[in-house]
Every structure is written in structure tokens, then in C-alpha cells.
Specification:
By secondary structure, the protein is an alpha+beta fold. It folds into two domains: about 200 residues, no CATH class; about 160 residues, Galactose-binding domain-like (Jelly Rolls), CATH 2.60.120. It has seven helices and 14 strands. The strands form three sheets. Strands 3, 4, 7, 8, 10, 11 and 13 form a seven-stranded antiparallel β-sheet that branches. Strands 5-6-14-9-12 form a five-stranded antiparallel β-sheet, with no helix packed on it. It has a two-stranded antiparallel sheet with strand order 1-2. Helix 1 packs antiparallel against helix 5, helix 1 packs across helix 6 and helix 4 packs antiparallel against helix 5. The longest helix has about 50 residues. The radius of gyration is 24 Å and the shape is elongated.
């Protein structure tokens, strides 16, 4: 989301500047663009403190990416910017509002792309929120998702057209200043990352912390485990630390073509440690119709507490309009650790396991997994 934040914040700045100029005769829209990367200061802060051999803790842990993505830092940042710019003769209200818009736009953009994203409402809530309308995979030189980037450019061009039509020549000059600020920010980003020796691909694109192995993906609080397994050398791990019921990360398989009105046997091996809370670990087989809409789910529940490897099985018949299925493992609202291994799906009277890499042994073959092959269920 490195370049996407710049493009979308520029589009927002053009329209916000137009509206504020009409109301007050002032256009501080450049503040939105400069503030658009403020939440990512946690990257710089974490790396800088490491270089200085300093340890600064937030919620008992060193600063990491995502710690500044919340309303507490939004208010602190907007207030600091407003106080500083006040010495430059700018109105406190203008600076506070536009710094807040830029900071908030960054968080909203992350929420649209990732699910879960960050604890945006901290300190009111530590729960991580997100919408996750797409699976973000950087494909433009590893620093941007080309689809999101193109949509952002289209949005920016539309905003330029709207303001030009509304303000004529005066609007063109103000738009040019806004675009100039965006270009300057883009140029300045490069030496900042180089000076701090930050690996852009690992830091900036680790926002959702989505991992991949062959035919599977996993999201935050889920991982590929080589220390606990039923067979082979790996398993899928899901963990919610503490004793507060929360939504965990997820393991999600690729989509698998199946027959409608057919009987299938779905099974998996599970292992739990300290599992508790409002719900227990669950593995679902989700049925999709031809348009990709979820139409039915069959679930396998694993017990709370501490349990050694146990095989669970479910037999189900696909709906008349079922086209594909995928596997979805999660601790919906609970805590503890859950390991999943040897997932199998057989059509009745068949000996062919339809789930490739059901033992989680194969590494990812390519990071550019098509979005159409990966789907999350809605609860």
C-alpha cells in the first residue's frame, strides 16, 4: 500500500481542498498528502530504535508495524501538526482537520483492503477490524497492487476533472500545487527508506501479514508450524493469546471444483492447547455457486481444552447449484492454540483426496496467487 496511499490521499486532498476553499478561501489540502503516511511512522520508529539499541514498548511489546494505526495516534498527530503549523501562521482548525483527514484516510484504506487490519479504535478497543474487499498481493514491482493502483489513478483523474470544471483556471493552479506536493512526497520517500535500511517489501507490504503455502493462505495470528504436526513435517497453526475471546487468524484453501447433488466425506485432524472462550476451533467446508457466492457450510468442531491429535469427519451432500468448495479454519470467538493437519475431501466411493497439500507440506510456488482462487467465508 506504499504508492496506493499516496494516490488515494491526493484524490481526497483535491476534493477536500475544493470544499474548504469554497467555505473559507483557504486550501491547506497539501497537509492531507503529507499526513497520509503518518500511521506508517511505526515502521520508522521501530527500525530507528533498533539502530539506537533502544527498546520502547507499546502494550508490552517493541514498536511494530500497526501500532500507530489508531484514533489515539490520530489525535496526537493532528494536534502536533496543528501546533507546529500555528507557528507558521496557519489556523489551528485547518491544520488539525486536514492532518486528521490524511491520517484517517490511511487507516480507512487499510481497513478496506485487510481483514483483520488493525486496532483502529484503540484505546477504546483492542480488537482488530477490517473489511477486506480484496486479497492484497503486491504485483507492481512488489510495492503496489496494480488493480488498486489503477482504481486510485482513475479516482484521482476524476477528482481533477471535478475541481477543474468547478473552479476553472484557479482550480488548475491549486490542483497543480497539490500534485506537486504529492510528487515531492514520493521522491522523498526513497532516501528515507534507504537511510533507515528498511526492506520495503517486508515492512510496507506486511500490513496484512498474509502468508502463503501451496494451495493455502493464512492471515495474522495463523502460521505454518514445523514444530507440531500429525504427519509429515508441518501443520497449520491458529493462535489467540490470553484468555479473552477474540476472532483469530484464518487458514483458507484454494477453491476446489465439485459436483452438485453429490455426497462428499470431509475430514481433518486437529490438536488443541488451552482452547476456550465463547467458541471452539472449527474447520468448515464452504460451498459456492457459479458466481462465487457462499450458499452452504458444513463444519467440523474440535474440543476445547487440551487435546491430542483427533480426527473429525463430516458427510454432506452438495446443493443443486454448488460449483466449488473451499476449506476455512478459524477460532471464531475464543482463545488458545489449534493445529490442523491432514485435511481430506473425498467424493463418495472415491479414493482420491481432492484437497491438494492437505498435509501442509508444500511451500508456496509463487507469491502471485490469483485472487480468484482464494475466498473467505462471511460469518
Amino acid at each position: 500500500m506504499l504508492f496506493e496511499h499516496l494516490i488515494y490521499s491526493t484524490a481526497i486532498a483535491i476534493i477536500a481542498g475544493m470544499l474548504w476553499f469554497k467555505r473559507t478561501g483557504r486550501d491547506p489540502s497539501w497537509i492531507i498528502i503529507v499526513s497520509a503516511f503518518a500511521p506508517d511512522f511505526d515502521i520508522f520508529a521501530g527500525e530507528l530504535f533498533k539502530k539506537l539499541d533502544m527498546i520502547i514498548l507499546i502494550n508490552g511489546a517493541p514498536i511494530r508495524h500497526g501500532d500507530f494505526h489508531n484514533i489515539a495516534f490520530l489525535l496526537l498527530f493532528a494536534s502536533a501538526v496543528a501546533l507546529i503549523l500555528r507557528f507558521a501562521g496557519m489556523k489551528f482548525k485547518d491544520s488539525f482537520l486536514f492532518a486528521g483527514i490524511g491520517f484517517g484516510a490511511h487507516m480507512f484504506e487499510d481497513a478496506l483492503v485487510y481483514n483483520p487490519a488493525y486496532s483502529f479504535f484503540y484505546p477504546l478497543s483492542k480488537l482488530r477490524f477490517g473489511i477486506g474487499i480484496i486479497d492484497y498481493i503486491p504485483g507492481f514491482y512488489g510495492i503496489a497492487n496494480i488493480d488498486i493502483l489503477i482504481l486510485g489513478i482513475v479516482a484521482m483523474v476524476l477528482c481533477v476533472g471535478i475541481r477543474t470544471a468547478y473552479e476553472s483556471n484557479g482550480g488548475v493552479k491549486r490542483i497543480a500545487r497539490t500534485l506537486g506536493v504529492a510528487a515531492a512526497v514520493m521522491i522523498l520517500m526513497v532516501p528515507v527508506f534507504v537511510a533507515l535500511d528498511i526492506k520495503v517489501l517486508e515492512k510496507v507490504n506486511s500490513i496484512a501479514e498474509i502468508g502463503y503455502i501451496d494451495k493455502w493462505k493464512f492471515t495474522p495470528n495463523a502460521s505454518w508450524d514445523s514444530t507440531v504436526f500429525h504427519s509429515g513435517l508441518h501443520s497449520a497453526r491458529i493462535e489467540v493469546q490470553g484468555n479473552e475471546s477474540r476472532r483469530s487468524g484464518r487458514w483458507i484453501s484454494e477453491k476446489i471444483v465439485v459436483k452438485p447433488n453429490s455426497t462428499y466425506i470431509f475430514s481433518a485432524w486437529g490438536n488443541t492447547e488451552g482452547a476456550g472462550g465463547n467458541s471452539q476451533p472449527v474447520v468448515r467446508i464452504v460451498e459456492l455457486n457459479a458466481s462465487g457466492k457462499s450458499i452452504n457450510q458444513t463444519r467440523i468442531l474440535f474440543s476445547k481444552g487440551n487435546n491430542d491429535w483427533t480426527r473429525k469427519q463430516a458427510i454432506f451432500k452438495t446443493r443443486p447449484n454448488t460449483s466449488r468448495v473451499y476449506v476455512y479454519a478459524i477460532i471464531s470467538k475464543g482463545f488458545g492454540t489449534f493445529w490442523l493437519d491432514d485435511v481430506e475431501l473425498y467424493e463418495e466411493k472415491s479414493e482420491n483426496n481432492m484437497i491438494i497439500n492437505g498435509g501442509f507440506e508444500e511451500e508456496v510456488k509463487s507469491i502471485l496467487i490469483p485472487n480468484s482462487q482464494l475466498e473467505e467465508s462471511k460469518e
